[in-house]
Amino acid sequence: MNLKITKQRGFSLLEILIAFSILAVSLSILLNIFASGVNNAGVAEDYTTAVQVAESLMAKTGVETPLQTGQTDGITHD
Predict the structure, then answer these.
(1) Most distant CA pair in the chain: distance in Å?
(2) How far is C-alpha 61 from the geometric centre of its chain's CA atoms?
């Protein structure tokens, strides 16, 4: 009985396709997480600006603008 033992070198096409599929899924998940983080940073910046404007307007109340009875509302230009 004569058996030939061959050593396998390299990767098969199926192994390469599976590796690329795993890589593609991983990269898409990472890019989605990154995009979500960038979006959340923008929203946080908007909230910070809104809080600063509100604190500024509250600090002016009673100092620059005398308090009056009634309702005051408006839109800021900041």
Answers:
(1) 108
(2) 36
Give the count of alpha carbons within 13 A of 62, CB side only: 2
Only one residue has tokens 């004569």, namely: 2
Give the integer Cα–Cα distance in Å for 59 and 78.
Answer: 16
Half-sphere exposure of 10 (CA within 13 A, CB side): 4
On whether the CB atoms of residues 76 and 49 are closer than 8 A, the answer is no
Cβ atoms of residues 61 and 67 within 8 Å: yes
Statement: the pTM of the whole predicted model exceeds 0.70: no
Query: Where does the chain have alpha helices with state H?
Result: 13-60
Q: Taking residues 36-63, report their average pLDDT.
A: 90
How many Å apart are CA 8 and CA 4, to the nearest integer?
12
